[in-house]
Design a protein that fits this description.
Blueprint (H helix, E strand, L loop, with lengths): L6 H10 L4 E4 L2 E4 L6 H8 L6 E13 L2 E8 L8 E4 L4 E7 L7 E4 L23 E6 L5 E7 L16 E7 L10 E10 L2 E3 L1 H4 L10 E3 L2 E4 L10 E3 L4 E8 L6 E4 L5 E6 L2 E2 L5 E2 L2 E3 L4 E7 L5 E6 L2 H5 L3 E6 L32 E10 L8 E4 L11 E3 L4 E8 L5 E5 L4 E6 L2 E8 L1 E4 L4 E7 L6 E5 L2 H5 L3 E6 L2
Parallel strand pairs: 3-6, 5-10, 11-16, 15-24, 25-28, 27-35
Antiparallel strand pairs: 1-2, 3-4, 6-8, 7-9, 9-10, 11-14, 12-13, 16-22, 17-21, 17-23, 18-19, 18-20, 18-22, 23-24, 25-26, 28-33, 29-32, 29-34, 30-31, 30-33, 34-35
The structure holds copper (II) ion.
């Protein structure tokens, strides 16, 4: 790995070994660190975790004869959907048989830095062949997810390039306000990536652009479009789709011809305005909870609006009861994705402080790798990127000075989108925001979860190549 991880953490892990955390005297303490003999005995027989996730190689057939060899969680793609209760403590034992140092990030939750699954924040790396138990109290409720937060660098078999992702649904502590007849979870992913000089393939990228990843297969759900079980629906049903973009580097725009998406939550958080749209655009790591009224019987393709993406598998068939025939695709009306339609129109209250973060690309040239900077620096020179005081409200001006789109993610916090372009807004709570090329947006962050907090582009390649920094709390 090109970037060094915190060596102190690695030492801790060697001491703790595979035992991870053990319950001693009612307190969660690192096993092997200053325990009494009694506690040490307990550490040898840790109580069974609530969930076990084994990361291991699998061969996954996404179409007849088309087998993806990758690593995944419990032999499933996506991994098992973890359903947790908000506020109820949980333990998750992770067995790392992926063949490389690994860890799991629990995306969209308020967690202590050590449990968050990001080495940059101090979470332990799990050596190959060892295990580790995460222990935390999930909050807030909503559609979260979990995925590898290992660095992949140029290795397209690792981390989010692999099948290491799954849904984590945090159910609200009391009741569920949703009214729907059926729930369908769909995660999108791209496969068989290769590094290419895009300027050799098509017009557009500047001649000095570095390598980008191009994919040869895609899935929405567990198999390629038309190859798996269809989503079976009945006329009159209200179907809740929870949709996740788990692609390593690619945004998706999805449509279901003859139907519209009523967006009730973005990144798992209820939206102030439940707007209805024809096309759902999700950048890497973004989620949408949408209600679809099934009022147009037939057999339809729910898939990418890009023909090339559907051709490589990005889609799933939606089939009404008693209907058969070829799945129908109709190009949806052209519509720009606009966060503002889901937000309140009034501006947010002024922050305590404003911090500008400027994102720039250092082109790698043909055959080389692009590098990325925030305010002129790349990770790890961006540690810290900026420092906050607990309780204060910060406005981050995100200034994308590049011709690429960036899904920017802040760990361990939920932020409010307060401006996109020159349009002020409020009330839209997210953990990842997509910044179109050469654009600006503003997000407000309340410093309400002390601990080192990773801020980065969720595009795996951009993160690995420097587009990352640490928000730290003043002590
Ligand atoms: Cu990026």
């Amino acid at each position: 790995m090109r970037h060094g991880f915190d060596s102190g953490r690695r030492q801790f892990l060697e001491v703790a070994g595979g035992a991870g955390l053990a319950l001693a005297g009612g307190l969660l303490v690192p096993a092997g660190l200053g325990l009494t003999r009694h506690a040490a005995v307990q550490a040898q027989t840790p109580r069974e975790a609530d969930h076990t996730i084994r990361i291991a190689p699998i061969s996954h057939e996404i179409a007849p004869g088309k087998v993806i060899r990758t690593t995944a969680y419990n032999g499933l793609i996506p991994g098992p959907a973890l359903r947790l209760r908000e506020g109820r403590p949980v333990t998750i034992n992770v067995i790392n048989d992926s063949g490389y140092p690994n860890l799991i990030h629990w995306h969209g939750l308020y967690l202590p830095s050590e449990q968050d699954g990001a080495a940059e924040e101090g979470s332990p790396i799990i050596p190959a062949g060892q295990s580790h138990t995460y222990a935390f109290t999930p909050r807030p409720a909503g559609t979260r997810w979990y995925h590898s937060h290992a660095r992949a660098m140029t290795d397209l078999s690792r981390s989010t390039y692999a099948g290491e992702f799954g849904f984590m649904i945090v159910e609200p502590a009391v009741g569920d306000p949703g009214r729907y007849d059926q729930e369908v979870l769909l995660a999108s992913h791209t496969w068989q990536g290769e590094w290419v000089s895009m300027q050799d393939r098509r017009k557009g990228p500047p001649p000095d652009n570095g390598l980008e990843v191009m994919y040869h297969a895609a899935t929405l759900g567990d198999r390629m479009l038309g190859q798996g079980e269809p989503v079976r629906v009945r006329q009159g049903e209200r179907v809740l789709f929870r949709i996740l973009n788990a692609n390593p580097t690619m945004a998706v725009s999805l449509a279901l011809p003859g139907h519209r998406f009523q967006v009730i939550a973005l990144d798992g958080n209820p939206v102030p305005t439940q707007a209805t749209v024809d096309v759902l655009k999700l950048d890497v790591a973004e989620r949408a909870d949408v209600i679809v009224e099934m009022n147009n019987p037939g057999v339809w393709v729910l898939g990418s609006t890009e023909d090339d993406d559907r051709d490589m598998g990005m889609g799933i068939v939606v089939e009404y009861a008693d209907r058969s025939g070829e799945p129908q695709w109709i190009k949806p009306p052209k519509a720009a994705w606009d966060y503002a339609v889901f937000a309140r129109k009034d501006a947010a209250a002024p922050p305590d402080e404003t911090i500008t973060l400027k994102f720039e690309k250092i082109p790698g040239g043909r055959g080389g790798y692009n590098r990325w900077t925030i305010n002129g620096r790349s990770w790890p020179e961006t540690n810290p990127l900026f420092t906050v005081q607990e309780g204060r409200r910060y406005r981050l001006v995100l200034d994308n000075h590049s011709g690429d789109e960036h899904p920017v993610h802040l760990h361990r916090h939920t932020f409010e989108v307060t401006k996109v372009g020159d349009k002020a807004m409020s009330g839209l709570m997210k953990d990842t925001i997509s910044l179109p090329r050469f654009s600006q947006a503003e997000i407000d962050v309340v410093a309400d979860d002390p601990g080192p907090t990773f801020f980065h582009c969720h595009h795996q390649d951009h993160m690995d190549e420097g587009f990352a920094g640490l928000m730290t709390y003043a002590s």
